[in-house]
Design brief:
By secondary structure, the chain is of the alpha+beta class. The protein has 2 domains: about 10-40 and about 50-80 and about 230-260, Pseudouridine synthase, CATH 3.30.2350.20; about 80-230, Pseudouridine synthase (2-Layer Sandwich), CATH 3.30.2340. Helices cover about 30% and strands about 20% of the residues. The chain contains 7 helices and 11 strands. The chain has helices at about 65-80, 95-105, 110-135, 165-170, 190-200, 205-215, 255-260; strands spanning about 10, 35, 55-60, 80-85, 150, 155-160, 175-180, 220-225, 225-230, 230-240, 240-250. The strands form 4 sheets. It has a 4-stranded antiparallel sheet. Strands 3-11-10 form a 3-stranded antiparallel sheet, with helices on one face. Strands 1-2 form a two-stranded antiparallel sheet. Helix 3 (about 110-135) packs across helix 6. It is globular.
Length: about 270
């Protein structure tokens, strides 16, 4: 994490009331606010794609479980990665953005600033459904017949290509990743078993409604990696039941998806 600068503080949108001192926080010194360690101005808006990534330092309190098992799981996260789900914050309070997106596609009028959020939620929901099936089948980090591949650290996709030693080596080195669709107009890039899985998962009534709505919004078919590997993972036990973990993620990745692989993480902000 960056070293402390001037100690300037930035208020988070929708700042919540104070929480008890024993609740989990982003850092041991931060409770009901976010602290901006360093900042500097720019001459214009941050362009899409300009963000290099995000670094996280999280302190988990009241941790239960066998320490050796937790340490082993952290090591596995660092070496094998995690399913690259869109985090729950993408879907609004209680996941309501997906329902609102369906209502919008059915004709409900929404404000212009809401439309983009609802389109993103709809797209993310379809992606997560495909990824959840691949996790259930154990192939979220493996090649399927007819796979479309994502280049690591890029929005570029290629394939399908016949499976070979070159692809196997690139997959093992995290140079490429399997992918799932970000829905929109156009044909799926995948073929064979991979395409059958994607079409099958997204054949339900509400999935079809989301698909049609995204197509009518003139979004284009894109892909997103199904595998995410955090960088610079460091874990430290501060006490018997207090674990601090640091890691870095690329743009568009969610810290909550990493934490979910550790076990049942309770959000102190909501008390659940």
């Amino acid at each position: 994490m960056p070293s402390p600068g001037s100690g300037s503080r930035c208020k988070c949108p929708g700042e919540r009331p104070p929480i008890p001192p024993r609740s989990s926080t982003l850092t041991p010194r931060v409770m009901n606010r976010c602290v901006c360690w360093t900042w500097r101005g720019t001459q214009g808006n941050l362009a899409r794609g300009a963000l290099a990534g995000n670094r996280f330092e999280l302190t988990l309190r009241d941790v239960s479980g066998e320490r050796t098992a937790i340490d082993a799981r952290i090591e596995r996260i660092a070496t094998e990665g995690v399913p690259n789900y869109f985090g729950e914050q993408r879907f609004g309070r209680s996941g309501g953005n997906v329902g609102q997106a369906l209502a919008m596609f059915a004709g409900k009028r929404v404000r212009r600033e809401e439309r983009s959020l609802l389109l993103s939620a709809a797209r993310s929901e379809l992606f997560n459904r495909v990824l959840a099936r691949r996790v259930a089948e154990g192939n979220w980090n493996k090649a399927m017949e007819g796979e479309a591949w994502m280049l690591d650290g890029s929005r570029s996709a290629f394939g399908p290509e016949p499976w070979n030693d070159v692809l196997a080596d690139r997959l093992s080195r995290f140079d490429i990743h399997p992918s799932a669709p970000l829905w929109g107009e156009g044909d799926l890039r995948t073929s064979g078993a991979c395409r059958e899985l994607e079409e099958g998962v997204l054949a339900g009534e509400d999935s079809l409604a989301l698909r049609r709505g995204l197509e009518s919004a003139r979004l284009w078919q894109e892909r997103r990696a199904t595998r995410l590997r955090p960088e610079d993972v460091v874990a430290e036990w501060l006490a018997v039941d207090v674990l601090r973990i640091r890691f870095s993620l690329p743009p568009g990745a969610y810290a909550t998806t990493v934490l979910a692989e550790l076990g049942d993480i309770r959000d102190s902000w909501r008390g659940v």
